[in-house]
Design brief:
Number of helices: 9
CATH topology of the largest domain: D-Maltodextrin-Binding Protein, domain 2
Order of helices and strands: HHHEEHEHEHEEEEHEHEEEHE
Strand content: 15-25%
Largest sheet: 6 strands, mixed
Structural class: alpha/beta
Radius of gyration: 31 Å
Shape: rod-shaped
Number of domains: 3
Strand order of the largest sheet: 6-12-5-3-4-13
CATH architecture of the largest domain: 3-Layer(aba) Sandwich
Oligomer: single chain
CATH class of the largest domain: Alpha Beta
CATH superfamily of the largest domain: Periplasmic binding protein-like II
Length: about 325
Amino acid sequence: MLDLRRIRQFVVLAEVLNFRRAAERLHMAQPPLSVSIQKLESDLGVRLFERGGAGGVTLTPSGLAALPEARRLLFHNAQLGEVARAAKAGLGGALSVGFVGSSTHGSLQRMVRLFRSEYPGVELVLKEATSVTIMDRVAERQLDIGVVRTPLMTAPRVELSSLLAEPFVAALPAGSHLARLPELRLEDLSQESFVFYSREEAAGLHAMAILACQLSGFLPSIAQEATQVQTVLALVESGLGVALVPSIMQTAPNAGVVFRRIVDMPEAATIGLAIATPAEQPSPAASRFRELAQRALHSGGQPLDGSPLRSSPASGRADRHL
């Protein structure tokens, strides 16, 4: 294996073509420099310099050929150090971010835009999944960080940091008789069939939607279950029932779905978004993303759906490269 120190000495000597001046530039004595160059030539099996009088040298054809490669080697060695130091500081490298689909209705865009603006040296690798899957992958360090829906059972070795809280709103098929009302009470939905969240894959949303209905005195009649909020809305559009969805979903108009505010939505059934990071030693870039995510969603004083911002603790696959 070549000694990079000797490579640098070779490049300096090739530039000044004099042992004394090269030794001065390298802040070393001339005899050790001469010995070091001889060892490099021995390692390579070729002569790099022809020695002349008074310490002068000229490059051999082998030396001339080796000089550009030696310079490239020193450059890439320096780059390697810079990349490693940048990653250690959270200013470079790659950051894998898991996200739930409902975060793409404005929230994720704000986070990504701000992060890329302030840390352009970090490559973001975005991976869509369910909150449960994201938590598992963060715990196993298959993901550096995640944007998840709360409430959510806290996984071992994962810390949740709340981003925003928001209420459910009613999602109705466009032809529903309830769509004629400007706003609803939960009891208005008591006789409707519901499209609900999967108990296994979206346990937090499932539990909060059930709780909201129970606090209003009824159990929902569940016609169909789905995992992702977007799938729930597609089934509502198909006429399979009504649904309770995060209020942020109103920002994506859909001609087949009507959204209505629920005036008596219990605060106990509030949902939200949170950042999931490893509980111990998250990467520096992950810590920076978490801080900027909170700033991105709180800086305007309002969450993206326009409802009052409330602070509440988090409880309870296509890859995209940006």
